[in-house]
């Protein structure tokens, strides 16, 4: 996985869901969505992941919660100049990555989860004006996932793909922890994986 994959790890390279900018109808407003539960909380201040890629040496990627400074309440990646923040509104969960450099800041904001996360729900994430509009389908909301960090229950399992199916992934989200595992799939084979291996308070 390249650095962009690390930075957009919880962003999944997805841009705003097609209907995200549309007013929510009266009927929709009555529906209670649970997408906010899948945001990462700051109960644990350090998340350690291991990145695996076929034919390459595994790498460690660490997210540390910033308690002070200009990037307070954001997550710093590998003690480098990349920071990630997570938020949500009525349309879904979003992530914003900020890269700090000498000439200023580069900001990338993407939607990482839609608002409807019921099993079988499907649709699109990504603004129709862009070429990277992605498909999604909720495969399960009650999966058990065992990671080196801990075993998670009632995990959200979601399939995400580019429109031409050239890039597909299965992502796993635990309530209060955010994404805990991701698998990239190419021609039915897992070619890359990203997995939570440690949590520290």
Secondary structure layout:
Layout: H1 3-7, H2 26-29, E1 46-53, E2 59-65, E3 75-77, E4 82-89, E5 92-101, E6 104-114, E7 122-125, E8 134-146, E9 151-161, E10 168-174, E11 178-186, E12 189-200
Antiparallel strand pairs: 1-2, 1-12, 2-3, 3-4, 4-5, 5-6, 7-8, 8-9, 9-10, 10-11, 11-12
Report a brief summary of the structure.
With about 200 residues, this protein is mainly β. It has helices spanning about 5, 25-30; strands spanning about 45-55, 60-65, 75, 80-90, 90-100, 105-115, 120-125, 135-145, 150-160, 170-175, 180-185, 190-200.
Report on the structure:
- The protein is mainly β and 201 residues long.
- It has helices at 3-7, 26-29, and strands spanning 46-53, 59-65, 75-77, 82-89, 92-101, 104-114, 122-125, 134-146, 151-161, 168-174, 178-186, 189-200.
- A 12-stranded antiparallel beta sheet has the order 6-5-4-3-2-1-12-11-10-9-8-7, with no helix packed on it.
- The longest helix is centred in the N-terminal third of the chain and has 5 residues, at 3-7.
- The protein starts with a helix and ends with a strand.
Which oligomeric state applies?
A: single chain
Total strands: 12
How big is the Rg?
16 Å
| Total helical segments | 2
Class by alpha and beta content:
mainly beta
Q: Which series of helices and strands comes N to C?
A: HHEEEEEEEEEEEE
| Main pleated-sheet profile | 12 strands, antiparallel
Mean pLDDT score, rounded? 81
- Biggest sheet strand line-up: 6-5-4-3-2-1-12-11-10-9-8-7
Give the N-to-C terminal Cα separation.
27 Å
Shape: globular
Beta-strand content estimate: over 45%
